[in-house]
Design goal:
The protein is mainly α. Helices cover about 65% and strands about 0% of the residues. The longest helix has 13 residues.
């Protein structure tokens, strides 16, 4: 079902029919389908944006790094879940361990500023990508701009 929904979406774009296939696949245990549904709820694809439902579907996809990242973002921003910075940090760390680059950067940012964990700038540098983008975000946040760097919510 998930593969059929994916093929349909790639060919024609998001549709109600593909959404229904994703729901059925998620109910049958497909973590990829659960992640896709969470993303559709975040971005308002076919359905109205609904962060609570997005977080619900992300939480069903615990083996999909992008879904764990999405759930962490929900906890960090307090969208769809009660704000919990410690839980967000732990989820970002788990997703980073699964290979997600955005999560690695989030772990580094949170370590650098002590968000949801104790500040540890030495360890933060090991997580942060060597890119001007992330160092720019860090300097803005240091000056009081509360930008998280998350693209999801």
């Amino acid at each position: 079902m998930y593969k059929a929904a994916l093929a349909m979406t790639q060919k024609k774009g998001p549709s109600v029919e593909a959404f229904e296939l994703l729901k059925a696949a998620s109910k049958a245990g497909s973590e990829e389908a659960s992640y896709a549904l969470g993303s559709w709820y975040i971005y308002g694809e076919v359905v109205r944006k609904n962060f609570r439902k997005a977080a619900f579907y992300f939480s069903k996809a615990r083996k999909v790094a992008d879904a764990v990242y999405g759930l962490a973002t929900c906890y960090e921003l307090g969208k769809g879940r009660k704000k919990n910075l410690k839980k967000a940090f732990l989820l970002y760390k788990r997703s980073a361990g699964m290979g997600d680059g955005d999560s690695r950067a989030a772990v580094g940012r949170m370590l650098y500023f002590g968000i949801g964990t104790s500040a540890n700038k030495k360890l933060a540098v090991k997580y942060l990508p060597e890119s001007a983008k992330w160092w720019s975000i860090l300097s803005k946040q240091k000056r009081g701009n509360n930008r998280t760097g998350n693209h999801c919510c």
